[in-house]
Amino acid sequence: MLDLTQVLSYSVALGIAAAVPGPGLAALVARSVSSGTLSGFCLLFGLILGDLIYLSFAVFGLAMVAEHFNELFEVVRWGAALYLCYLAWQFWFANHQAIEVGRSVKKRELLSAALSGLTITLGNPKTIAFYLAILPLVIDLQAVSLQTWALMLVPLTVLVLLSVNALFIVAAVRIRHLLSSPHAQRHLFRGAATIMVAAAASMLRR
Predict the structure, then answer these.
(1) Which residues 6+ apart lie within 8 Å of 87 measured at CB?
(2) Quick one: which of 28, 101, 166, 191 is 20 to 30 A from 110 by CA?
């Protein structure tokens, strides 16, 4: 089991990493502004699921698999970077309309938001760096058992990410009236697109 120092260190490090601007946070704010709270939380569900996948990779030592399957991970890296560029293109050239507060969101839009969140996280260099480089510095992964992963790390990760990102969703929804015009949305979405292109370039550079 993890001691209190490790729990606090992991929580603080993860909270800071979640609050640092990146493609996931940019997409979360943009989606919350354009489609509302429910859509924002669906995208957040995808983001958290991606984090849990990388957490599992780190805990169970699957990072070492990359050394033996370098070609496969190279394909994944390029695929993730290209997907981020595709999302950036969509954000940049989106046809924005005035926001209708209270508009019902279709199930297809919610599913799309969740899948986008998952894919963005899997292709996010910041997330990869945290779980495969920073996490081993704050937690002794050799001492993490299946029980510790399931009963401590997974719930703690969900709680921290939900708490931090929910604040951004609530803030984005509260300022929707300030960003209701197509002009304001264009600036917001193009800012998110720029962050995604930067993330893709960072991934390819590494």
Answers:
(1) 23, 27, 116, 120, 193, 196
(2) 191
Q: How far apart are CA 35 and CA 84, in angstroms?
A: 20
Structural domain boundaries in the chain: 4-205
CA 44 and chain centroid, separation? 7
pLDDT in tens, the chain (206 residues): 788 888 999 999 999 999 988 888 888 988 888 788 999 999 999 999 999 998 998 888 765 555 555 666 677 677 777 877 887 887 788 776 555 555 567 888 899 899 889 988 887 878 888 887 788 888 888 888 889 999 999 999 999 999 999 999 999 888 776 666 677 777 777 887 887 788 778 767 76
Residues in CB range of 83: below 8 A, 6 or more apart: 119, 123
Residue with tokens 């950036």: 88
Rounded to two decimals, the pTM is 0.79
